[in-house]
């Protein structure tokens, strides 16, 4: 790919050496090498989802991406992952071009990552956190609204993005509910310089996702999702199904944490690999 585009002066494109300011969300069990590479080859930034991934598998995924593309890519690190220290060592050793972070405070890692030449983009749900990440040295901010899938904050994308844009000087990538060119245009109008999309790529041919799961996403409407987990301090947006309805009942009944864990653990894996979209 060569030649200028309308995004040639875009700070995200310049910083990450990509053609279009579109980032793949680092989805656990989904954002693997085939999908990551095809996004990067198309001019965006593919991002490996390392959540729940053993360090040796992360090494393999990075190698597979490099076999499939010579374009930049990234790794998403979930900071509450039990393997996080080993995962950080992997991305440092492999010198991946970019790291996005979620589920925790990456401040203690930012300096080492930047010393290795790695661009760091924390995902944040609030303006105060964006300011804190900029002070810690983040190269950019991913402002994620509550419309996103998975773990979410409480502020909508359309409200959150302009506030964070006004609060920091580093470039902002918007995330949450963005699924096409209209969404990209909308967040650019809000002051963001790029967009991260996750769910939009679930039905891609390269996504290692069961066809039943893909169909559940494609058939979803504006009323097909639910946010559970607020009573536990960990809100999550998912498609409404048998498990999420039971989870919501458990919240009303103030069940124990062990009961919630027993109900939910392994649900994403069952959907992705087995096509079980109800449990």
UniProtKB/TrEMBL annotation:
<keyword id="KW-0285">Flavoprotein</keyword>
<dbReference type="GO" id="GO:0018580">
    <property type="term" value="F:nitronate monooxygenase activity"/>
</dbReference>
<dbReference type="InterPro" id="IPR013785">
    <property type="entry name" value="Aldolase_TIM"/>
</dbReference>
<keyword id="KW-0288">FMN</keyword>
<protein>
    <submittedName>
        <fullName>Uncharacterized protein</fullName>
    </submittedName>
</protein>
<keyword id="KW-0560">Oxidoreductase</keyword>
<dbReference type="Pfam" id="PF03060">
    <property type="entry name" value="NMO"/>
</dbReference>
<dbReference type="InterPro" id="IPR004136">
    <property type="entry name" value="NMO"/>
</dbReference>
